[in-house]
Specification:
By secondary structure, the protein is an all-alpha fold. The protein contains 6 helices and no strands. It has 2 domains: 32 residues; 92 residues, no CATH class. 62% of the residues lie in helices and 0% in strands. The chain is elongated.
Length: 126
């Protein structure tokens, strides 16, 4: 009985270790573009609720409220800056300040690029 348990535990641990190895190889080697699907496609769609239009090819759009660095950061998150509002209403700014905090909103207005967490939190204000 003791030998049987040792064999079962060894088999289970071997399966777990090999699953981890295969997952790591697929993630880092990225032969099936898994990382792109998870990071830019699926997660963005889940966390942003699909309300921001995602686009594979971005144009050189010059958003009036964003710096070039902010636009590039959004593009890196697979968010098309041309789909964002070109003006911020007082209600939207109040919402952003409530969600992100006054300090973070002032930093973003000053030109600091938003993080993915900022985008996810601020999504409800659009």
């Amino acid at each position: 009985m003791k030998t049987f348990l040792i064999i079962i535990i060894t088999v289970i641990l071997t399966i777990i270790i090999w699953t981890g190895i295969v997952t790591a190889v697929i993630w880092y080697a990225n032969p099936f573009s898994v990382k792109d699907l998870v990071v830019k496609g699926v997660l963005t769609e889940i966390f942003l609720g699909g309300n921001i239009q995602l686009s594979a090819g971005f144009t050189d759009y010059n958003h009036p409220l964003l710096t070039a660095d902010q636009e590039n950061t959004l593009r890196d998150m697979n968010i098309d800056p041309s789909t964002l509002p070109t003006s911020i209403s007082p209600e939207m700014e109040t919402c952003f300040r409530a969600v992100l905090g006054d300090k973070r909103v002032d930093e973003i207005i000053g030109g600091t690029a938003p993080s993915i967490l900022d985008v996810m939190k601020g999504q409800s204000c659009f």
